[in-house]
Specification:
Layout (H helix, E strand, L loop, with lengths): L7 H40 L3 H16 L5 H15 L3 H18 L3 H14 L4 H18 L3 H15 L7
């Protein structure tokens, strides 16, 4: 069974393989596009930003996503919350978002529960936004020493912060 064109079977198999790879890459690209779209929607919904402001936030999001283990949706949600709660933008927002995502990942806690508590706690204690990333390490160590999760510790500090402030100093 030599056929009319020698090697035609091999050529057809290669063509099928190339087509399969192309379809697979196309599906992966569509999935990535859908994931990015979900993240952009989270960002827009949480910030209310549009136009050039939203374009800038999306650029920050893409930059952060390039080196992150988190999904676009997680990054968009976290970045949107932090932008709305702190007013941060640009590299400062990227750094704060990265710190919150890292803290949530290391502790196994939900970043969407963590952010409202940590930003409230830091605000109540007068910790400037540009200092919050470095204070998250302190918060993590305190939660380890206390034997409670960061979310629970933050909740307690928010709840009893007024009574604690005269006797405690965060430095």
């Amino acid at each position: 069974q030599n056929g009319i064109v020698p090697g035609l079977g091999i050529v057809l198999k290669l063509a099928g393989l190339v087509a399969g790879v192309t379809v697979g890459l196309g599906a992966a690209t569509l999935a990535m596009g859908a994931e990015a779209s979900k993240g952009y929607s989270e960002l827009a919904n949480r910030t209310g930003a549009y136009g050039a402001q939203l374009d800038g936030l999306q650029s920050n999001m893409r930059h952060l996503a390039a080196g992150s283990q988190n999904s676009f949706a997680e990054i968009g949600s976290a970045m949107g919350q932090l932008s709305a709660r702190t007013g941060q933008t640009g590299k400062d927002l990227e750094g704060l978002t990265q710190s919150e995502l890292r803290l949530a990942r290391v502790t196994g806690e939900d970043v969407n529960q963590l952010i409202p508590l940590t930003t409230r706690m830091f605000g109540d204690w007068g910790i400037a936004t540009d200092q919050q990333s470095s204070k998250m390490d302190l918060l993590y160590r305190a939660s380890q020493q206390a034997g409670v999760g960061v979310t629970d510790l933050s909740r307690l500090v928010v709840q009893f912060g007024e009574a604690l402030q005269p006797v405690c100093k965060i430095s």
